Amino acid sequence: MNPSRRALAEQLQLYFICGTPNTKDVLGTVETALQCGVTCFQFREKGKEALYGDKKEAMARALQTLCRSYDVPFIINDDVALAERIDADGVHIGQDDTEAAHVRARIGPDKWLGVSVHTLEEAAAAIDHADYVGIGPVYPTKSKEDAGAVNGTTLIRQVRDMYRELPIVGIGGILPEHVPMIRQDGADGVAVISAIASAPDVAMATRRFACL
Ligand code: TZP
Ligand code: MG
């Protein structure tokens, strides 16, 4: 694997995703998670109680400052304009968002672009533009209503067989005990919302993932 891909893959080991609808105290939760070993963070502000406009931007900036203080990449879900405005480290998009080629053209070569894929065809279409792909839902999830069919690690294995060097994160319903198998089947890391954001003890939950 080339050195920059290897570095990126390592940075994806424990990828925490969170927004204000996922926890009562998003700043406190994210700071604890950063202290306890998350290696990448995505601000995903979605759903009924999501912030918009200036409030969303203020929250993004506060979370970005926290991530910088822990030297952890700060990625924004979907909102390319916000990512550009605040100079985020990257953007993550799904299949229903702006096309990967278009987002890459906007953010340039130096920012990270992550793309969620659910089929080999989507993976094939993403690889020319994406720095990494998210594959899931590996297990059932309550954090995304339209997450699609649960596919275990089948697609992770297929994408890994086809693209040996592509950084991959598994996502969807992932608990610490699932991590060894997901890695063994080809993912570089796991992306997690509820197992950290809804944990009664965020520090302990994060450490359980981080020590794997
Ligand atoms: N994309 C596929 S599953 C999912 C997203 C954003 C939600 C993951 O959340 P959780 O709580 O870790 O299942
Ligand atoms: Mg999206």
Automatic annotation (TrEMBL):
The keyword Nucleotide-binding does not apply. Residues 14-196 form the Thiamine phosphate synthase/TenI domain. It catalyses: 4-methyl-5-(2-phosphooxyethyl)-thiazole + 4-amino-2-methyl-5-(diphosphooxymethyl)pyrimidine + H(+) = thiamine phosphate + diphosphate; 2-[(2R,5Z)-2-carboxy-4-methylthiazol-5(2H)-ylidene]ethyl phosphate + 4-amino-2-methyl-5-(diphosphooxymethyl)pyrimidine + 2 H(+) = thiamine phosphate + CO2 + diphosphate; 2-(2-carboxy-4-methylthiazol-5-yl)ethyl phosphate + 4-amino-2-methyl-5-(diphosphooxymethyl)pyrimidine + 2 H(+) = thiamine phosphate + CO2 + diphosphate. One of its GO terms (molecular function) is thiamine-phosphate diphosphorylase activity. Coiled coil: none annotated. Keywords: Magnesium, Metal-binding, Thiamine biosynthesis, Transferase. It is an enzyme of class 2 (transferase). 4-amino-2-methyl-5-(diphosphooxymethyl)pyrimidine binds at Q42, F43, R44, E45, K46, N77, S116, K144. Its cofactor is Mg(2+). InterPro entries: Aldolase_TIM, ThiamineP_synth_sf, ThiamineP_synth_TenI, TMP_synthase. SUPFAM superfamilies: Thiamin phosphate synthase. Binds 1 Mg(2+) ion per subunit. Gene3D superfamilies: Aldolase class I. The keyword Metal-binding applies. It holds the Pfam family TMP-TENI. Pathway: Cofactor biosynthesis; thiamine diphosphate biosynthesis; thiamine phosphate from 4-amino-2-methyl-5-diphosphomethylpyrimidine and 4-methyl-5-(2-phosphoethyl)-thiazole: step 1/1. 2-[(2R,5Z)-2-carboxy-4-methylthiazol-5(2H)-ylidene]ethyl phosphate binds at T141, K142, S143, G173, I193, S194. Condenses 4-methyl-5-(beta-hydroxyethyl)thiazole monophosphate (THZ-P) and 2-methyl-4-amino-5-hydroxymethyl pyrimidine pyrophosphate (HMP-PP) to form thiamine monophosphate (TMP). Belongs to the thiamine-phosphate synthase family. This is Thiamine-phosphate synthase. The gene is thiE.
